[in-house]
Amino acid sequence: MQHEDHDDPLLAYENHDFLKSPEARTLRILAEYQEPMARFRRERIQDTVVFFGSARFRAPDVANSELELLANTGSCQPAPEHEQPAKLEEVESGEATGLQLMRAQAAVEMAQYYEDARKLAGMVASWAKTLPGRRHRFVVTSGGGPGIMEAANRGAFEVGAKTIGLNIQLPFEQHPNPYITPGLSFDFHYFFMRKYWFAYLAKALVVFPGGFGTLDEMFELLTLAQTKKLAKNMTVVIYGTSYWKNVINLDLLAEKGAIAVADLELFKFADTPEAAFAILKAGLMEHLESAHEREQRRADAEGIDAIHAPSAEKILGPDITKTR
Asked: What is the pLDDT of residues 70-106, one digit of tens each?
């Protein structure tokens, strides 16, 4: 009697039903650590400058030159018509609602932030390209989506530099913006793994006006700096003084004792790309000497035998910050 033929069992790592199951969650988390690590090493990325900001505003030179508000942080679709900024003809005819008029004024302001982020990212990337070394330093990085994120990637792209996008899968239809270096466009499932790569490669952070996501990401990194969890100094620039001082009162936190007065020194405000770049450059200069060079200099000063040469992994891989 012949037995019926059966398909050969799948190898575990080829079993997609298993890999998508709750039991394989730890494997998916590890993959979102190890796969980016491999790509950063292959692309010789040493460290980054991260740009945060609103995803909801389009560039002023697209959408038929009309400013348009997106429906959601993760959406490529426009917001409902009654929430859109008023158009010129609607203002002139008196048809625009109060909300639309306020949105029109805000849209002009946010469009300028887009241009400022684009310019600042270009300045950072142009300067970083002149730095010596086998790895790429201070690579402009964003969340990979539209709005301010697109502006940052675009600014770096336009000067011919590598640029990173750390996108996140959302229930909407957001896709990576077109200005990310192809080998450095990432798509994460887990927010916390995406945040890991934001935090542990960054030597500086620029926070442009934004909403819930921007606030979440900014305060997470400020908390790491405040608690000295990261064994590095991170330069933090909060861009747009009037916007941010209307959104959050950080001075009040210090006055009430919720944070230390010294915590207000963890960041600096800037209102022009030139001022922000000066702050960033001053902070980033402290990181130009590699850890190996510092150790070699210390060994020479103390008369210690020459230390072992670093491994190829350390020479080519990302400079992931140690924790205290």
From this structure: 545 555 566 666 556 555 555 445 555 655 556 666 6
- Cα–Cα distance for residue pair 39/32, rounded to 1 Å: 11
Using the predicted structure, report yes or no on whether residue 3 has a pLDDT greater than 70: no
> Quick check: 252 pLDDT over 50?
yes
More confident call, 266 vs 313: 266
pLDDT in tens, 285-309: 999 875 556 655 665 666 655 455 5
Q: Report DSSP letters for 189-226, one per residue.
A: S-HHHHHHHHHHHEEEEEE-S--HHHHHHHHHHHHHHH
Cα distances from 55 to residues 33, 39, 77, 175, in angstroms, run 25, 25, 12, 12
DSSP letters of 39-84? HHHHTTB--EEEEE--SSB--TTSSTT---BBSSTT-SSBPPGGGS
**Of 66, 105, 37, 89, the residue nearest 242 (C-alpha):** 105
Residue that has been written with the tokens 């675009």 in this structure:
154
Q: State the amino acid at position 207 in one-letter form.
A: V
Structure tokens given for 100? 């639309």
**Which pLDDT band, with edges at 50, 70 and 90, does 68 fall under?**
low
Largest alpha-carbon pair distance within the chain? 88
Domains for the chain: give ranges and CATH numbers. 45-55+116-316 (3.40.50.450)
Pairwise CA distance, residues 238 & 22, whole Å: 39
* Pair of tokens at residue 57: 């505003």
Contact assessment for residue 39 and residue 183, using Cβ atoms and an 8 Å cutoff: yes
To which residue do tokens 């949105």 refer? 103
Classify each residue of 101-125 as buried b or exposed e, where b means 16 or more C-beta atoms within 10 Å of its C-beta: eebbebbeebbebbebbbbbbbbbb
DSSP 323: B
- 180 phi, psi to nearest 5 deg: -85, 140
Give the CA-trace dihedral at 169, 206, 32, 128, to 10 degrees: 120
Q: What pLDDT, on the 0 to 100 scale, is given for residue 25?
A: 96
Selection from 48, 228, 279 nearest residue 143 by Cα: 48
